[in-house]
Predict the 3D structure of the following.
Amino acid sequence: LILWYLTKLSYTYTSKVPISVNIEGNKFKVTCIAEGSGYKLFSYKLLRKSDIQLSMRDIQATPSVINNDSYVINAYSLQNAISVRVTDLRIISIGEIPEIQISYSQP
């Protein structure tokens, strides 16, 4: 039975993986569709506790039309930024992304 589980975990799977992101103090979770071995998916879901730290330079964002002082994050740029930091899994797509509020300080 243990050998069967070990064999199954070596296969490649596609699964939903919640990923915590922190963009300059704006923390949120995004659900990603990721591909990887059963071992890597299982260990990522079980052991990953810290947020992925990003800055505005890591992503593309445009001002929100609806909310003043909010930005809409480009999904493709966020997917790429996450993929660079989560190297054990292949991020196939990402789910809904909330608008974020960023205050720029004037020098």
Summary: The CA atoms of residues 39 and 84 lie 20 Å apart.
